[in-house]
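Hi Prof. W.,

I finally got the Mn2+ and Fe2+ transporters of the NRAMP family prediction working! I wasn't sure whether to trim anything, so I left the full sequence exactly as given:
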Amino acid sequence: MKKIKNRSVLLGAAFLMATSAVGPGFLTQTTVFTQTLAASFGFVILISIILDIGVQLNVWRVIAVSEKRAQDIADAVLPGLGLSIAILIVLGGLAFNIGNVGGAGLGFNVLFGISAEAGAILAAGISVGIFLIKEAGKVMDRFVQVMGLLMILLIVYVAISSSPPIGEAVLRTFVPEEIDVMAIITLVGGTVGGYITFAGGHRLLDAGIKGKAALPEVTTSAVSGITVASIIRVFLFLAALGIISKGLLLDESNPPASVFQLAAGKVGYKLFGIVMLSAAVTSVIGSAYTSVSFIKSFNKNIDRYENWVIIAFIFLSTIIFVTIGRPVQLLILAGSLNGLILPITLGTILIAAHKTKIVGDYKHPVWLTIFGVFVVLLMAWMGGYTLLKQLPALFS
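And this is what came out:
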């Protein structure tokens, strides 16, 4: 019975991480880059998958063996660092959740013709409903699994309908005509940046799956999470490539919607609504759950009333979207900060991995450390460069 329970939690953690990554931005990002790079975008996806797996294995393994959440690990490395990271994660999570709520509203708009604001409120109600249930963790695990599988099936159908040039896609995945470093960084940041990096690891910790003995299960769950997100990315790429290879033009105001519509007509457009709604609602849940998991260490009341704090987080995101919309400046700043959060948090995790007071007698694999340091340096450089480029726009 325990094995079945663990399997459910491990799968739930994997899908929580994956569906947290697959939000409205993920759908748009994948379509736009396919439009720009065509079949060579396959190479970008391949490299980002390898980098994503390296990041997740480093983070999830250290969380498991230390039996601490990321902010507590950071405090053990340097007192006060945990609170600083928690503030960055929560602010970034809130900003992106405004976009997630908006995406859910758009999904309802496509499906039923209601306003995006009314759809956002309805989506928030669904998300809140999960955390009102006594065994919210189990319901959340099952919900993200069902929504994740639904997204995969619908996107596979659209990819088949668009008849992509598979041979060209496979060839350019390994022999690209163009390499876009910025696209790789964007994909890595969007898949394992900010709160997303810790969604699954914190879920496993909350469910009691921790310690050295659990490392094989933790590793499998981490790789599964990246695999699920990557499957969705690959088939969305193929769907968009099929449309672009035919010379059809995508609607610049909503590229992913036009891919679905051009591939499968009116039915495809409705399927886009379902995919957008599924992606957005699961991202709302993942963002709220993970963001709150970063602050509950600092106050016993937050820990005690965790579900209510999560609900308040969702309400706040929804109110901001309905009353103000998506504040562009806030989202620009949050995106730039997100690029800097990963090197800070991953760098902290790598230091912790070699401190016996944190991980005991656990020996972190050398290759994972080297891989992690490479990602830290790469993301720090690109994140700093992007932030400096955007600062003038923020204050103009």
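The mean pLDDT is 89. Does that look reasonable to you?

Thanks,
D.
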